[in-house]
Amino acid sequence: MARHKVSIVDIAKKAGVSITTVSRVLNGKAEQYRISKKSQNKIRETARKLNYIPNQFAAGLKSGKSNTIALIIPSLSNPFFAEIASEINAEVRNRGYITIIGDSDEDRQIENEELLQMRSRNIEGLLIAPTGQNGSILKQLNDQGLPVVCIDRYFEELDIPYVSTDNYQGAVMATQHLLEYGHKRIACIQGKQDSVPNKRRIEGFKDAMKEAGIEPFSITGNDFSEQNGYKETKLILHKRQRPTAIFALSTTIALGCIKAMREENVAIPDDISLITFDDHPFLDYLATPLTCISQPTRDICRMAIKHLFFKLENKEIGEKQVLLKPELKYRKSVRNLL
Amino acid sequence: MARHKVSIVDIAKKAGVSITTVSRVLNGKAEQYRISKKSQNKIRETARKLNYIPNQFAAGLKSGKSNTIALIIPSLSNPFFAEIASEINAEVRNRGYITIIGDSDEDRQIENEELLQMRSRNIEGLLIAPTGQNGSILKQLNDQGLPVVCIDRYFEELDIPYVSTDNYQGAVMATQHLLEYGHKRIACIQGKQDSVPNKRRIEGFKDAMKEAGIEPFSITGNDFSEQNGYKETKLILHKRQRPTAIFALSTTIALGCIKAMREENVAIPDDISLITFDDHPFLDYLATPLTCISQPTRDICRMAIKHLFFKLENKEIGEKQVLLKPELKYRKSVRNLL
DNA sequence: AAAATTAGAACAAACGTTTGCGCTAAATAT
DNA sequence: ATATTTAGCGCAAACGTTTGTTCTAATTTT
Questions:
Q1: Judging by beta carbons within 10 Å of its beta carbon (0-12, 13-18, 19+), is residue B243 exposed, middle or buried?
Q2: What predicted TM-score, i.e. pTM, was given to this entire model?
Q3: Which residue has the higher pLDDT, B316 or A65?
Q4: Is residue B333 part of a domain?
Q5: Residue B14 pLDDT > 50
Q6: What residues of chain B lie within 8 A of the CB of A103, using their CB?
Q7: Which residues of chain B neighbour A259 with C-beta distances below 8 Å?
Q8: End-to-end CA distance of chain A
Q9: How far is A86 from chain B (nearest CA, A)?
Q10: What is residue B271's predicted lDDT score, i.e. its pLDDT?
Q11: Are residues B112 and B160 in the same domain?
């Protein structure tokens, strides 16, 4: 067993050519540099025989290229982001690049470290659903020529491209649906407060309520997690007056709501209605199929990728900041009070 | 804006020391090489000022280290594997390494390419839930000194460490539960046929049935996907005689079952009972809470990581191939026929 | 006062590629 | 027969680090 890692030098020696020639053949530049078929075959064959594995470190160091895109998301354990990761991964691979995924765990510090890690790995592009606090770093990266595209989360005040859902619109749709069905006491349980999607959803909720001339029952919570949904729902249910509907800002939160309501013997939608942001394959098969605002996740990913590669290839880009329309999926969790 | 990427050479010049010294300070080897506090401070400060980002390509090339662990799974869109990815990612990060994730999409060819990619990125360890056809390659890697640990899926005939669930036992538990409740016509819908977990589950199912002296109603399917579960359930429901229970070998499959049964107006568990492998937060809140065999995913990940790092650090390892006990979670989807 | 030790740091050779440029021999044009 | 082009390939200098070895001046020991 050869203990020594084989390099193109070994191939060159064995094939009786220069390392230059080996490099060119193995990089598909044989035609360009008119290497004879004979040499090509010889080289490719010895490479195979020797079990050659190119060393990206060396190649990357010299060429400055890495063929790598970074994806940083707040939480791989959130199905919404898991789906994004899956999509992005596939798309990127299709274009001959590979993805390295970072999970920031919603933590500014971790996100920052991931960012450093990624940069030191010479990534050529960055897709990120930012936690929200490292905006200036991202802006700087983008300005320095690293193509950055934000996904889902973004910065309104910074000139960084993004692709997301029209969260405001989505929240308005959800709220209006509730209002149309006669709900007046509507509690909203939110996720990460300083994330843009959350802010816009809250705005949409508030505006829709205001337009109807109704005060929100409550707006609480601070995390896109089941625990948060559970805790806030418990608190809500223990108030002297209960809402007639709850608007959860993610399926993870909604899951917590359902859990709390079941514990407290609150029926959905008979006692309290529930509507959520984000869709999920299971929602249709819950005890009460959950009405939701569905985000066009696939399209978001595709557009973001398209955007990114346009920048990588220096093509002209149209709209830099795009918001895609969400969709209201009517299921059974909202009761008509009229 | 400095167009030129700053290197330790720049720092050395500006700080008035050699690049050796810079390298040593920035790598935390200052004490070891007794660099004065003064130089240390100077170096660290100029590094910060110049916005220095280490170049992993260069460092890796020279040192041969990458601080990188690869994780290859069959499908990021399967919640079971998404959870694994999330766990692994966190654990690896805690140990100062970073994870690069590959999604093989259950495809032997893609898996192979991912493997090559990973190797050319000089990974120091590999965690993989293999598709099943690249065993010899993995064996070879492992023999060549790259620590490899299989997760969930593994190879029985090869001497590669693995951590998984006792799938046989799990299937036996599920089947016996069904049998104890008086079910005799039991259909099993399986996932990827040549994956070890699937094989062992099928074995467990068959053995438990045989022990009860009952023939399986049917064993069909070939993919851990919703589509597969849906299709096979549809087929089953159109047979002249229906089973009294279905054993789905994953939640994704179960989801397809539920969909098909709903379409055909089959009530769970009144008309047909359903039990599944794998747990999921939503299972408790489905129209019929789904009884399942829950895998100790967290423990699997932890043990796999522990194993991997033991090998990395050349520590002595105890058991190389471990199967963890699954757990039967009683919910409401199995009807007692007695 | 000479010898030995120690603190603090620098030299320079790798690591495995990529790539601009240059070279030779053969083929073709003049 | 000479000049030009072309086919086919190699030289050697990077890329930005890490690291074994060496060096000098200062300090301590004898």
A1: buried
A2: 0.92
A3: A65
A4: no
A5: yes
A6: 86, 89-90, 93
A7: 284-285
A8: 79
A9: 5
A10: 97
A11: yes
**If you write DSSP's letter for every residue of B243-311 in order, what string do you get?**
-SEEEESSHHHHHHHHHHHHHTT--TTTTSEEEEES--GGGGGBSSPPEEEE--HHHHHHHHHHHHHHH
Amino acid in the structure at residue A186: I
Q: For residue B326, give both structure tokens.
A: 């699954």
Residue of B nearest to A286 (CA): B286
Cα(A171)–Cα(A176) distance, integer angstroms? 8
Q: Say yes or no: B99 and B28 in one domain.
A: no
How many beta-carbon pairs under 8 angstroms link A with B?
Answer: 123
Question: Of A43, A54, A58, nearest to A7 (Cα)?
Answer: A54
User: What domain range is B305 assigned to?
Assistant: 67-165+297-324
Smallest Cα distance from B61 to chain A, Å:
5
B20 and B115 in a common domain = no
In a domain, A93, yes or no: yes
CATH of the domain at A308: 3.40.50.2300
Name which of B288, B316, B38, B103 is nearest A89 in CA terms.
B103
The answer on A74 and A32 residing in a single domain is no
Number of domains chain A contains: 3
Rounded, the Å distance between the CA of B41 and C1' of D27 is 24
What pLDDT, in 10s, does the model give residues B57-110? 999 999 999 999 999 999 998 999 999 999 999 999 999 999 999 999 999 999
Contact flag A56-B57 (C-beta cutoff 8 Å): yes
The token pair that represents A110 in the structure block: 């971790």
CA distance B114 to A326: 35
pLDDT of residue B334: 98
Same domain, A303 and A156: yes
Burial label, B132 (beta-carbon count in 10 A; 0-12, 13-18, 19+): buried
In the block, tokens 């065999």 appear at: B293
CATH number at residue B41: 1.10.260.40
pLDDT, tens only, A235-248 = 999 999 999 999 99
Q: Is the dihedral of CA A73, A76, A81, A83 positive or negative?
A: positive
Residues of A in contact with B120 (CB under 8 A): 53-56
**What length does chain B have?**
338
Residue ranges in chain B assigned as alpha helix (H): 8-15, 19-26, 37-49, 56-63, 79-94, 108-120, 135-143, 167-180, 196-212, 226-237, 251-263, 297-312
- CB-CB under 8 Å, B105 with A90: yes
Count CB neighbours of A199 within 10 A.
17
Length of chain A: 338
Same domain for A257 and A181: yes
Contact call for B282 and A255, based on CB within 8 A: yes
Q: At B138, list the tokens.
A: 């993995």
Q: CB B287 to CB A286 under 8 A?
A: yes
Before A269, cis peptide (omega within 30)?
yes
Beta bridge partners of B149: B127
Residue A46 lies in a domain: yes
